[in-house]
Amino acid sequence: MTSRELVKATLEFRNTTGRVPRQLWTLPWAEMHHKSEFDRIMNKYVWDISYPDTVYAVENPARTGNPDIIGESTDDWGCVFTSIQAGVVGEVKTPLINEDDIDWEDTSRVHFPEELLTFDKERVNESCRKSDKFMMSGITPRPFEQMQFIRGTENLYIDLATKNEGMLKFLSKMHDFYCRAMEKWAETEVDALSFMDDWGAQRSLLINPELWREIFKPLYKDYIDIAHSHGKKIFMHSDGYTMEIIPDLIEIGLDAINTQIFCMNIEELAEFKGKITFWGEICRQNILPHGSIKDVEAAVERVYKNLWDNGGCIAQCEFGPAAKPENVEAVFETWNRIHPGK
Questions:
Q1: How far apart are CA 20 and CA 304, in angstroms?
Q2: Element (H, E) at 92
Q3: Which of 25, 65, 145, 273 sits at a 20 to 30 Å CA gap from 81?
Q4: Distance CA 231, CA 192 (A)
Q5: Which residues pair with 119 in a beta bridge?
Q6: Cα–Cα distances in Å, from 87 out to 30, 84, 291?
Q7: How does DSSP assign 128-176, residue by residue?
Q8: Which residues have a Cβ under 8 Å from the Cβ of 179 and sit 6 or more positions away?
Q9: How much is the pLDDT for 223?
Q10: pLDDT higher than 90, residue 342
Q11: What is the spatial distance between Cα 340 and Cα 20, in angstroms, rounded to a whole number?
């Protein structure tokens, strides 16, 4: 099977003969600190998920700087990030909507990045046709996180708890933008769309699950419906403990989730086997930076035992800060050993 066929078969729980699909996420830190090992790992394996060549007709005037180096950079929405470590994403220190603007009356400093809708669809399609990789869209809606960057985390939590009307009005406008972007990407020849929001702390959701269901679940359902109405798969990333909302994501049709399954009880996650694909991962808090190769092998075997069902797993991990190169390599070596395909 080609990479495209392999990933689709895995997502549909009909991968009876192929190996487990692979994807490695890398932060610039990995190449900066482990250049030779990074290159060797990248060249050693076939990676099955990729992204099309994307060119925009209009440049975003808000985006400035380099987020991968120490200093300040500005994202597509005009949020200024301060980075104190090269190769690691920084933080927003000064939100665009002031703390004392309780009603969200002044949003003039927020830049809605309409430029992202000016990408060349035919260029994307040509890129997809030339590749046998499973191709992902070039935009990733993240309403909860982007609202934190714009408003500040503490202030946004207060606004969510009080269901602030100004906040909800702004969120609706943001969601309209994201839906239009997802629609345009769904009209291309990519295989999947994706969205993200980090919802988990170490052992719980960051907000009350009922509030999540009321405000954010309908937004995600819209993204999923857009993808499926165009015959696309759809993936989501969310760090932390997300056990409480996985049933909801299955209910609204999510195909694959990347989440920190080692913050949860993987044996309990087994109840979702065959219902959703776990798009990685292997613990980057303890095992990848501090564990032995035997620890890595045991972790992969645990994931496979509990979550594989003729699909339902993608061999993915993150090569980021403090991760040992030999442990990253051991992730994929172990997947090869326990499920090499025929």
A1: 10
A2: strand 91-92
A3: 25
A4: 9
A5: 56
A6: 8, 9, 23
A7: HHH--SEEBPS----HHHHHHHHH-HHHHHHHHHHT-HHHHHHHHHHHH
A8: 222, 223, 226
A9: 98
A10: no
A11: 7
Q: Check: CATH 3.20.20.210 for 3-338?
A: yes
Q: Which amino acid is at 2?
A: T
Tokens (6 digits) for 80: 């200024």
**pLDDT tens digits, 238-247:** 999 999 999 9
Q: Is the model's pTM score more than 0.90?
A: yes
Query: What does each C-alpha distance from 144 to 175, 220, 239, 250, 266 come to in angstroms?
Result: 11, 11, 13, 20, 26
Chain centroid to CA 293: how far? 26
Instruction: Read off the tokens for 100.
Output: 């004392």
Residue position matching structure tokens 């909860």: 144
What's the DSSP call for residue 254? -
Residue 81's identity, in one-letter code, is F
Torsion of CA 272, 276, 280, 282, to 10 degrees: -10
Structure confidence at residue 134 as a pLDDT band (50, 70, 90) = very high
The secondary element (H helix, E strand) that includes residue 247 is: helix 246-251
3-state secondary structure 194-237: EEECCCECCCCECCCHHHHHHHCHHHHHHHHHHHHHCCCEEEEE
The answer on pLDDT for 89 being more than 90 is no
Q: How far apart are the C-alpha atoms of 88 and 322, rounded to whole Å? A: 11
In this predicted model, what pLDDT tens digit does every residue of 14-35 receive, in sequence order? 999 999 999 999 999 999 999 9
3-class SS of residue 94: coil
279 has a pLDDT exceeding 90: yes
**Rounded to an integer, what distance in angstroms lies between the CA atom of residue 111 and that of residue 25?**
28
pLDDT, one tens digit per residue, over 149-190 is 999 999 999 999 999 999 999 999 999 999 999 999 999 999
pLDDT at 49 over 90: yes
CB atoms within 10 A of CB 149: 21
DSSP state of 2: -
Residues 104 and 81: their CA atoms lie apart, in Å, by 21
What pLDDT does 186 receive?
A: 98
